[in-house]
Design a protein that fits this description.
about 280 residues; mainly beta; 16-stranded antiparallel β-sheet; 2 helices; about 5% helix
């Protein structure tokens, strides 16, 4: 007799435009609520109800592997590449939850990346998470997932580089050692529903304005005090932050926030936030 409880380590995500992805957690699913409004209807129990709209989405997170920086077909490209009209690339995602039994896997269609988060601390493995939205979920299926038996290297902190241009709000030293780096790219997706559509799944998903935020932490106190007046901002160029993640090199146009130093018995560490501004050439 098969076990009633299955180990999740035999599952994985197969992203059509990326390939097989190892992860720590995945929660992609289709959710729907039953709405029972309060009505005057001659009884004290809810008798009138309606099925609400279906929302397809969730998240995948875990350590950054070589799949993240796939050279044109990785998670980074799926989450960030936009065409001249601002559209993202959609992809089907096949989630295998476990091996064997019924309802072990499901295919989700037309998924777009809503948010991409990346973080790395010196001495640790880089981490990522993506939030996705889609327009369809296939029927549950049974069976065994194809085995993934090829070794894949995790991306450690020594493969993550950060540098800051000596301009804009960040002046003076730019070669200080960095202790932490994190950023979030939000595509601000919106699910759209249409009158008279065939089902309750989203009719389409519309990308919004892209928002880029993040922070870097350095040992010491860099000269990044911000400006006191508008004229000072106007007289200085927009700063840039360059980060390298294995084979990926990205130069982001940003405005740096004011430096936030923290002192303790250990090393003095300062955190400087940044917000992406201007057109990003990637």
């Amino acid at each position: 007799m098969a076990n009633a409880v299955y180990p999740g380590y035999m599952g994985y995500a197969d992203i059509a435009s990326v390939g097989n992805v190892r992860f720590a957690d995945a929660s992609i699913t289709a959710t729907q609520t039953v709405e029972a409004p309060d009505l005057i209807m001659g009884d004290y129990d809810h008798d009138a109800y309606v099925y609400g709209k279906i929302e397809v989405g969730g998240s995948i997170s875990g350590p950054v592997t070589e799949t993240f920086a796939g050279g044109g077909s990785g998670i980074w490209d799926w989450a960030t590449d936009r065409d001249e009209c601002g559209d993202l690339t959609s992809s089907d995602v096949h989630i295998w939850y476990f091996c064997g039994g019924s309802n072990s896997n499901r295919n989700f269609t037309n998924l777009l990346v809503n948010n991409l988060n990346f973080s790395c601390a010196a001495g640790d493995i880089a981490q990522f998470s993506i939030d996705v939205m889609g327009t369809g979920a296939g029927a549950w299926a049974g069976g065994n997932p194809p085995p993934i038996q090829t070794a894949e290297k995790l991306i450690t902190w020594d493969k993550v580089g950060v540098s800051v241009s000596p301009q804009g709000e960040w002046t003076g030293d730019t070669d200080l050692p960095f202790s932490n780096f994190d950023f979030t790219i939000a595509n601000n997706l919106e699910m759209v529903y249409s009158l008279g559509q065939a089902d309750l799944f989203p009719y389409d998903i519309v990308p919004g304005l892209r928002t880029i935020t993040g922070s870097v932490s350095v040992f010491g106190t860099p000269q990044s005090n911000g400006f006191d007046n508008y004229d000072a901002y106007e007289a200085n160029p927009i700063g840039t932050i360059t980060f390298n993640i294995d084979t990926i090199t990205v130069v982001a146009s940003v405005r740096f926030h004011r430096v936030e130093p923290a002192s303790s018995v250990g090393p003095v560490i300062s955190t400087v936030g940044f917000t992406g501004v201007g057109h990003q050439n990637w």
